[in-house]
UniProtKB/TrEMBL annotation:
Belongs to the cytochrome b5 family. SMART domains: Cyt-b5 (SM01117). It comes from the Bacteria. One of its GO terms (molecular function) is heme binding. GO terms for cellular component: membrane. Gene3D superfamilies: Cytochrome b5-like heme/steroid binding domain. This is Cytochrome b5-like protein. It comes from Marinimicrobium koreense. The lineage of its organism: Bacteria, Pseudomonadati, Pseudomonadota, Gammaproteobacteria, Cellvibrionales.
Amino acid sequence: MKKTAFAAFVAFWSSVVTLLVTWTLVPAVTLAEEEPTFTLEEVARHDRLEDCWMAIRGEVYDLTDYLPHHPAPPAVILPWCGREATEGMTTKGYGRDHSPAAWGQLERYRIGVLESAADTSTGQ
């Protein structure tokens, strides 16, 4: 009887410790904040190398800080500033898509979603 009680005692406290450790290691689920949305008109105001936003696949990116590091000369990128630039990303202007690494770099410059894309995703 003592062995059964001791085994139950150890099992109980092992479970408690496991739950506490799990609770502290797993981040709390928070409700996502509403993302900023931008219209194409707002994006169009940022059409210079010194202030370059692009809408790509329904998301808006501020690429101003990246432009000096882009391998292509500024004259290649400037026509896409302030515009819907998915075509520029998927074709590079001559039918060849950007690399997966280039697509991955975009995320750090993401500032929100395009208003029409946000309306579609929320069912409005």
